[in-house]
Specification:
single chain, eight-stranded antiparallel beta sheet, 3 helices, elongated
């Protein structure tokens, strides 16, 4: 019985070692891709080797306006805030940390924004602490005005809510 138990332990360890070696070989193969081959693979996936130029223009701190509209599109309230954009992933993405006052508390949220070369659109994800739902969005840059309009849907207790962000 002891011999069988020891043999099973050895077989189990041998299996673990072979899995670890296989994973290391795969990682080594990935790491050895030449930059030209990696760039070619990215282009096939619709990714640009260079970040969209608009991404760098967003970096910094700016004032914001949170505008709430009623169901008829009439402005209900405007609340000012601040947003800080930081570049990540060699400029392919930016993060946004956002704060505004709402009645007696500070609302904080976070988003990431990048450019999807295949879709030819800006894409991102917005999260905040007032709701447990993430809010994916897509946007287009108006080349004439330099304004990025992002549209997404937020889940709520009352069903989906359309939201629009303009940068």
């Amino acid at each position: 019985m002891r011999l069988a138990s020891r043999l099973m332990g050895i077989v189990f360890l041998a299996g673990l070692v072979s899995v670890a070696v296989a994973q290391e070989a795969s990682q080594a193969e990935f790491d050895s891709l030449e930059s030209a081959a990696l760039e070619e693979a990215q282009q096939k996936l619709g990714a640009s080797a260079k970040p969209h130029p608009y991404m760098n223009a967003l970096v910094g701190t700016c004032k914001t306006a949170h505008v709430e509209l009623d169901k008829d599109g009439k402005e209900v309230s405007v609340v000012e805030g601040t947003a800080e954009f930081k570049s990540i992933q060699q400029g392919h993405w930016v993060t946004q940390s956002y704060q505004r006052l709402s009645k007696d508390r500070t609302i904080e949220s976070f988003s990431v924004l990048g450019y999807d070369g295949e879709k030819q659109k800006f894409v991102g994800l917005w999260i905040d602490k007032k709701t447990p739902f993430s809010m994916p969005f897509e946007g287009q840059l108006d080349d004439k005005t330099g304004i990025l309009k992002e549209i997404g849907t937020q889940q709520s207790l009352y069903g989906p809510i359309l939201f629009i962000m303009v940068a």
